[in-house]
Amino acid sequence: MEEDTMKTSSKLTALAMAAAMTLSLTACTVGGNTGGNPQTSANPSGSQPAEKESYVVGICQLAPHDALDAATQGFKDAITDALGDAVEFKEGNAGGESNNCATIIDGFLADNVDLILANATASLQAAASATDTVPVLGTAVTNYGIALDLDSTEDGVLGGNISGTSDLAPLDQQADLLEELFPAAEYPNVGLLYCSAEPNSIFQVETIQGYLEEKGYTCAQYAFTDVNDLSSVTQTACDNSDVIYIPTDNTAANNAETIANVVIPAGVPVIAGESGICSGCGVATLSIDYYELGQITGEMAVKILTGEENVSDMAIAYDTTLTKMYNEANCQALGITPPEGYEPIA
């Protein structure tokens, strides 16, 4: 009997010790949780995820030229200013070859990047085809609806994983600038020079043609397919035009010197859709600031990376600061004096 009593006492002691240990572990768990709230460490549904310590951002740029270079730099500077060394950039330049964009984007996805910058239309199209989950921001894209073959060509909130910034300067104001410098009474024939492989260029040419014809100009379109027929098409445009308009066309921008070698000897002035083309072959432009456009895109990227906003809720953004600019060397070569209010292209 005495032995049974001792066994019972030992069992009760063991149970008491186990209970005490359980209470102790529970107290440690609660006490070690910041704020004393055991639900915080469990990250319940609906709470914001913790901000990452580092990010990887892929940048796919279609070609190396001034406008796109400036947009990329502005993008990187805006992110670095906000997040410092927490961001690693992986960069790829397609060298003007659209097919190379897909290879670059696939490499980014293999590296598990957190966000992709698609600089220019071909880069955006490649990114849109490659992923519907990784956030994609475009920049230096004129019209997203046309670039992505959407039902609507109105740039707003696209939804899904894509947003970005547009480089479109108002085409009606560009038509006004052309009229200011080259009135229809003296320069009645306007040649519209563009690459037929770029849907955004087609959109710009067709739109500005309407504005120019309302002002009394006679317009003709001159489309080149790539750099191989650029010189011959440009020469044809010069032979039949008093002034030429070139939209924000990536192929033209990447080969502006080739165009200049035709238009300057022919004595035909070029109004360009942006400052990069104008610095190569134009005399004047109404242009946005591509560095500022890149910065706007970078600020959007920071909000996405930190979880402040979702890319699917972001509307296409614009640089609303427009500047009348002129190419001093080309103006001198053609005997053109721009009116007051035009800034020289640096």
Automatic annotation (TrEMBL):
<dbReference type="Pfam" id="PF04392">
    <property type="entry name" value="ABC_sub_bind"/>
</dbReference>
<dbReference type="InterPro" id="IPR007487">
    <property type="entry name" value="ABC_transpt-TYRBP-like"/>
</dbReference>
<feature type="signal peptide">
    <location>
        <begin position="1"/>
        <end position="27"/>
    </location>
</feature>
<keyword id="KW-0732">Signal</keyword>
<protein>
    <submittedName>
        <fullName>ABC transporter substrate binding protein</fullName>
    </submittedName>
</protein>
<dbReference type="InterPro" id="IPR028082">
    <property type="entry name" value="Peripla_BP_I"/>
</dbReference>
